[in-house]
Amino acid sequence: MRQHPDERAAALRSWFLGPHAENEQLFHELLDETVQDHFRWRKSFRPEDPPAISPAACRSPVHAASVAELRADLKELADELKHGVPFFSPRYKAHMIGDQTMAAQLGYFTALLHNPNNVSAEVSPVTSRLEMEVARDLARMIGYDSADSWGHLTAGGTIANFEALWIARSIFYFPVAVALAAADLDVDLNVDVPECARTPLRSLDLFGLLNLSSEATLNLLAETRAIAGGELLKIALKRYSLSSAGYQDYARTLAARFGDPLEAGVVLVPATAHYSWEKIVRALGIGANQLLFVAVDEHARMDPDNLWDRVRRLAARRRPIIACVSVAGSTEEGAFDRLDTILEVRDLAEAELGVTFHVHSDACYGGYAATATWRADGKRRTADEIREATGIAWPQDSWVDSVKALAHADSVSIDPHKLGYVPYPAGALLLRDGRARALVASDPPYILPSHVPARSNDAVMGRFAFEGSRPGAAAAAVWLSHRAVPLDERGYGYLMERTAVGAHALYEALRIADVSPCRIVTLPKPDLNIVCFLVAPPGDATLRELNALNEGIYHSLSVQHPYDSPEYVISRTVLRSPVYEGVAEPLLRRIDSRLLGEWPEEGLVVLRAVVMDPFLATSEPGSRHAAGFVRAVRQAAHAVEARSGSLTLI
Amino acid sequence: MRQHPDERAAALRSWFLGPHAENEQLFHELLDETVQDHFRWRKSFRPEDPPAISPAACRSPVHAASVAELRADLKELADELKHGVPFFSPRYKAHMIGDQTMAAQLGYFTALLHNPNNVSAEVSPVTSRLEMEVARDLARMIGYDSADSWGHLTAGGTIANFEALWIARSIFYFPVAVALAAADLDVDLNVDVPECARTPLRSLDLFGLLNLSSEATLNLLAETRAIAGGELLKIALKRYSLSSAGYQDYARTLAARFGDPLEAGVVLVPATAHYSWEKIVRALGIGANQLLFVAVDEHARMDPDNLWDRVRRLAARRRPIIACVSVAGSTEEGAFDRLDTILEVRDLAEAELGVTFHVHSDACYGGYAATATWRADGKRRTADEIREATGIAWPQDSWVDSVKALAHADSVSIDPHKLGYVPYPAGALLLRDGRARALVASDPPYILPSHVPARSNDAVMGRFAFEGSRPGAAAAAVWLSHRAVPLDERGYGYLMERTAVGAHALYEALRIADVSPCRIVTLPKPDLNIVCFLVAPPGDATLRELNALNEGIYHSLSVQHPYDSPEYVISRTVLRSPVYEGVAEPLLRRIDSRLLGEWPEEGLVVLRAVVMDPFLATSEPGSRHAAGFVRAVRQAAHAVEARSGSLTLI
User: Which DSSP string corresponds to A502-551?
Assistant: First the structure.
């Protein structure tokens, strides 16, 4: 079952078109087959129908002129695109975009010719099914139980995260709605309370109702369907859900019915959270002021001690927590939060404080890394086994524990269009307990029979997903890519290993590089494949000068305008105070402790290389590019220093 | 400048691959050129770099095995897709999906090979620019001033509508936030109040603050940037915006500061509004109970009298209106609200009641129909001119007035992936006054200088748009399609005419069809290209029997499972009480007035044919398909009746 390393390396070389179109013949053949097949199908579909476009029409001068213009415009587009960014090149190391798998490109195009719409199986009987298969693939990849979980594709990570928090918000307030509806109907209900036995719902105060576990809440949902012929659930959802009542009336209702001036529910995120989380809490009406940032450690991972401290203080103030977002692969650093430890914090909060919250893993970037933890036989690999395969000290045991903990997150978002190597748009949302989708369904759940299992009615995804029309081609692309590149050590797992090995090689090259009179200061070893570092100028530079140097290097090594073509392409990020203190302070101490005082005002510019390229790990061309990358950084640093007058080199 | 009709007809035949792949040679050539060109580019990019994939690697048995599997999987995908729905066929008349323009398909694929990400120009220097061009195209199409307006592409209509209402909500509450911040800083400000002179902000009560025009509010935004070094704006946005404070704190703040138990703001939509509007108000926290449906008339257009009545009654109760959504091309009927009249209602409300609201046009379906109102020289066509071109009584003068009124809507959503004939995903949002985007920007607007014009900083679209990563390929597809098919009478305008003419031909064929002993009852003539009708059984059928017949016809003529292949494919909708009374009651009276009593309980099933096919209007194959469609409906009706026992035919 296990493959020889050489076999994996050979297979890898069949997955991509290649930076020099090495697999062009294959790609061209397959593309040709698929398009010819499509033509044949059109011709054979209802061949008795008269042609809509006669051969004579295709020979008219107007047709010819129109075609000539299309040809010219298409060429213009193709030529323009070459002034874009060469993501396929090993010289591109800036953002989380690399080449796509040929399977994904060909799958996308093949389905594009049909243009199915995954809003409903009625307009996508095939690709809606493929989407469900893909959702099951991803659920299995993170260790979810396929029978209970549920998921679907989205336009991207922002929409997936938005939906996750929308659902978390709906779960959070649902017990309140049921309690109010039960009071209206004078019905008694019991519910599971963390660390307690079954408790009468009416004995809970508002804070208690907002601190039931997802499971207890979804069990409550299931129970209420049968009560008073569904009337209780109907009243709860129509009269007492935030979704129905809206923010103005809801706050008034809570105050009037509970007499409780309860503080607003909060959402906890690590300092590394993507900027879209702020958009999301704003749009959902939760409010940006309720988005609380938890400090990160030196590795840019959420600090569990700080989280626990936050939770304790919130509980003391009776401030409920709607959700805690953990990041698996932060956008800037690729950092993986210790999700296992975060879940322990929640256990502790339930046991000691009687409070709980939804745990969402934003694995938009890092989700596919879970493939490295799977053997071909469906069993998990140990950290030792993976290290044996990579031949380096990656991954750490704790990284594997974090990845395995994904199975216990209430919801997870994953972007196939990042480490899945498929074209945009392809995000995904997964729920551990698919019953939750009923709380955001467009048809109120009280019209669905209670025995319906989580995955039925997937035929009309638009009922549950936030988006309506969605490209079935995206599902086809992901599906074909998962077929061609298995979601375990043979396929994507190997890709992940290779990018991690490549990143570590680059990291080492940077760490030992001589860029004197400057010097390179690296962040801790990457959790996966994003290498962060900065170049310190000689002498007693101020933080502003340090930042100017790195900003200057970034400008030299990035595509600022369509015709730019730097030797290598990198990106940069800015570590801001106070949330990035855990990362920035140790770095600044290594450079010059006197800079610590300037940091809160200035921020710290850090250079960033994302290794999507699986070939950087191989001796040829890998080592040449690692050396070339370091050389480009050195040249850029020297050029910036020379321009600023502090160096006379070059 | 004007083209001869034959020239337009000849050009039309160069835009699509065709139902029998009539333009296959052309498509194949262009596809081949684009992919070969892409290969050449990859090979010529940094040719000095060693290959990542050696020729030897491509000859290994593992490579060969992997390729064989990819080929088999791709073939499986292609074969499966043929069991989907043949949108390209003239026999498909179910939903708003037809064939795509070749320009769109080729443009998408060409850009897909590059996979740019329009989240930011840094990862899409070319396609971000194309997106801005496309947004300008669409703005011009609806008559917006290109200097002041702003827009972008979205994943689809739901996201575009969501963003529109998010922005409307932000505009709506902004004066409240400024008033509270001004009180904190003890600053005096004046503002334009409908039908009044400049009024001190502090003289307005809460209801007055929530009834300022968009323009007055955006002027206020511009003014506040300069006050107290931006501090006022910062306090307004950080402390007193709903986006920052969130629903719980916000309601409390309003009550505490204004002492006003103001009722929740509402959103008015016509009965025809797409079901996603309910998702949107739920997610935004406005609340589904605040979504108020305005009755529609016989043509399924929002009834302006009912709207006025609603507005008057809301004003009397001091209930503010966040927005009124008008529909240009309803999903089910293709109905165009009389937007000109709706805007008059708003004028009247400002003059007589002192209330106002944001007007959004959901033109997701019908937006491209505006192209029929443009001449090639950039001047508007009159209704007479268009009728002269179509040769039928379409369009009505009032339809042209409704379309021209789009120029005055505060925001408009348009889906290129519907009547733009481009592949999914392609929605679009347009704002008449681009300054509004600052209220939802991810970087708070107080850090932007006040003199920045609306369209600058488009380089990072992710700051303003709700989505993050988005396919640049979608922008390329729309851009190339707009190039190939001009957005006026020569191009899309002609397409719109042809589908309208085809729909009217189908309508006439159904109106005079003999399906005895049943009979066909048509809804009023379509506003564009969606034909709705139903088949009435013989004798004294109950409404349930009537619905069963039409549901049965729909089941016979739709793709319920992957292998279904009915003669023609249609769809159906259900007219529900009370919001569809305007449409359903006249219909039921024509069938049997006794059914009126059953309707509120049962709803009324209506069959629906969407004519995306521009060739239905031509004598051959058009008339053959119109006749074939009627025959298929008759056969299906007779078969259902025979099964139900009320007919012995067949």
Answer: HHHHHHHHHHT---TTSEEEEPSPPSSSEEEEEEEPSSS--HHHHHHHHH
B505-526 per-position pLDDT tens digit: 999 999 999 999 999 999 999 9
ipTM: 0.96
Asked if residue B5 has a cis previous peptide bond (ω within 30° of 0), the answer is no
What residues have CB less than 8 Å from A88, skipping those under 6 apart? Answer: A16, A17, A18, A19, A98, A99, B42
Residue A562: give the domain boundaries.
1-49+88-99+496-650
- Chunked into runs of 10 residues, chain A (650 residues) has average pLDDT values of 73 96 96 97 94 88 94 96 92 94 98 95 91 97 94 97 97 96 95 86 94 95 92 94 88 86 90 94 95 97 98 96 98 97 98 97 98 97 97 97 98 98 98 95 54 52 90 98 97 97 97 96 97 95 95 90 85 91 96 94 95 90 92 96 66
Residues of A with Cβ-Cβ distance to B47 under 8 angstroms: 20
Report yes or no on A161 lying in a domain: yes
Instruction: State the count of interchain CB pairs (< 8 A) between A and B.
Output: 553
- Is pTM beyond 0.90? Reply is yes
pLDDT-wise least confident of B169-183, B220-234, B241-255: B241-255
Q: What separation in angstroms does the CA of B94 have from each of B425, B571, B597? A: 20, 5, 30
Residue A501 maps to which CATH number? 3.90.1150.10
Are A379 and A425 part of one and the same domain?
yes
Mutation site for A-interface testing, chosen from B27, B74, B169, B446 by largest number of A Cβ within 10 Å: B74
**Residue at a domain's end among A464, A484, A504:** A484
Cβ distance of B74 and A442 shorter than 8 Å? no
Q: Which residue has the tokens 């036995």?
A: A197
B227 and B162 within one domain: yes
For B37, the closest chain A residue by CA position comes to A78
Cross-chain residue pair B50–A621, CB shorter than 8 Å: yes
Say whether A112 and B107 touch across the interface (CB within 8 A): no
Shared domain for A453 and A501, answered yes or no, is no
Same domain assignment for residues B223 and B305: yes
CB contact under 8 A, B284 and A283: yes
* Contact assignment for B52 to A22 by CB distance below 8 Å: yes
Residues 6+ apart with CB under 8 A from A624: B49, B50
